[in-house]
Structure formats: structure tokens, C-alpha cells
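My current task is to audit a protein record that another person submitted. Thanks in advance; the entry in question is below:
***
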Amino acid sequence: MEFGLSSEQTLLRDTLDHYLRERAPLERVRRFAAGDEGRARDLVAGLAELGVSALLIPSAHGGIGMTALDACVVAEALGYHVTPVAFTANAAMVPSALLMAGSAGQQAEWLGRIADGSVIVGAALAELSGARRDAGVTADRGRLNGRALYVLDFQADAYLVADGQGGLHLVAADALGLRRTPLQTIDATRPIGELVFDSVAADPLPGASPAVCQRVLDIGRTMLSADTLGASQAMIDQAVAYANQREQFGRVIGSFQAVKHLCAEMAASLEPTRSFVWYAGHALTELPQESHLVACHLKAHISEVGKFVAKTATEVHGGMGFTDLLGLHYWFKRIGFNRQLLGTPEWLRREAARTQGLVHAP
């Protein structure tokens, strides 16, 4: 049995890679990170034309109807180029939540517009993966109160918000009583923010439940893991390229055994995670009974591998690795912030243990 990407998935990956090399080079990422560009609307529109925002949306709603594994291929390509566009929430978590728990009216209202890129919907679900004591959202008779931190795809037209009881709600970005505040994080390539709700009117998803919330989180965790895979591979490729052109003592540093070992260790650590990401994407669609445990283990593991790769690739570059000239820090920070989003490795391992009955739930 051969397990790998299909020819269509390989074509999708190569098409995205070619597009992003042209439209989202490092200088474009720098401008976005510096705040000189708004929502990178041309990239949003261009990726929508390529079907990125429509991947998980059925054709009946204007989408393509592909699988979570296809979405992983896209997430890896976006991570490889540290692309400053909304994807994890807008194209993966929100459509999945609407399809699982939304009413026919909600699906008709939102899915088509997400698919064609005319709206962006962020996701405020971080409190389901370890909330701060001063954060959390409550719902009462169609109104939301509280505070949501680390909202994904923050520069959005609306938000998918989770309450503390396993409910999901759609909230317009301009809703009365909603206060939006951008948060400064180490990763400037993705807008993250805070939402404060003061009796804000919300549109609840009628089929929402703790199980649906868990699945939406697992989809997000898998996409973030694929993003980390792409960013880590980019750091390895840059380290190898640098080692093959940087000279010291009359030789390229890539000829030194110590540098060879560093590059080999990075590759050996990262390569097994590729099939892990593929399996997690496959499980989301084909093996739902396994998908939660797999997503927890995947994100916990790849977060550790990504941390090792980011550190080691920077070391291969020597002092240059810490400068803005090379821009290596954009991938370094992307990997580091992915590690914290939707569950740290420690939190996810405890969740995996609870899922298997190895420890009692708190």
C-alpha cells in the first residue's frame, strides 16, 4: 500500500507554491508585518480564485467540496511562505462549524461568501483550550457577554464565537456593544485580537454542542500543524542553502561535519511529521472516532519538532540568523506562535490522556 499525496494534491501544492513565490515574497511579508498593508486584499482575492477559501465548502454552496487532507496541503504551502492571509479560521474552522451545526439559512448566508472571498470570518475559540481566569464568554437569551482572547483571522467581517457551555455563535464585526482590540504577538504575519462583549446580539448555531466545538478545534489544530510543517521545511531549506554558499576558512560551511549533522538532524526530525500531518487530515474525514486523539498528539509533537528546527536552523546561519536582513525570524516566530494557539503541547498531552481514560478530567 502506498500512502502519499495524489497527483491532484501535488498539483495543488505546486500551483500554490508558484503563486506565492510571485505574489507573497519576503518583501511583501515585511510590509504586511510592519503594518503598511491592510488585509492583503489582493492575496485574499487571488487565493480565492485558486479555490483556497472554498476547499471545504460543498459545491451546493459555491465551494469545491474537497477534504481536510487537501486543506492540510494548502496550510503547509501557506506556512512555507509565511503567507499573511486568513486561512485556519476562515477557510477551515468556520465552514466546518457551519456545515456541522449551522441552520440552512446560516449556511446559505455565509458559505458562498466565504468561498468567493467576499467576506472573512474569524474564530474566537481559544478559551476552549485553556482560558485565562479573566477570559471567557457567556450566552444568555441571544446575547453574549465576556472576553475572548487570541481571536484567529482577527481582521474579519464577522466572528464565530464559542461560549463556555459548548455553544457557537456568529457575531458581526460591527455589532453594537462589541469592542475589538488588536493584540501584539510575536507573529506579525497574522492578525490576532481580543473581543469584549457587552450584551452583544449573536446568531447561535442551532446544532452546536461540546462535541462540535471539539471537532472544530481539532480541524484548527491540524491546520496549524500543517502550517508549522511548512514553516519548518522552509527554515531547513534556507539553512541548507546558506550552508552551501557561506564560506569560512576558505570552505563553504556546509562541508564541515558539524554543520552537516545539524542539517541532517533537522531533516530526520521533521520528515516523519509529514506523514503524521497527512494521517491527521485523513482521519478528520475518514476516521472521526480517531481524529481527536490524533490531532492532539500531532500538534503536541510537531510543536516540539518545530521548536527544535527553528532553533537549529537559526544556529546554522550564525549571527546572520538573528538579523532582519535574512528575515528568518518570520518563520521562527510563526512556529513559536503556532505552538501556543489552540492548546500548548502540555495541555494537549493532558487532553490526550483524559481522552484515553489515563487521568481523570479536572
Summary: The beta strands are 121-124, 136-140, 143-151, 158-162, 168-172, 178-183, 192-201, 203-204, 247-248, 251-252. DSSP finds eleven helices and ten strands in the chain. The longest strand covers residues 192-201.
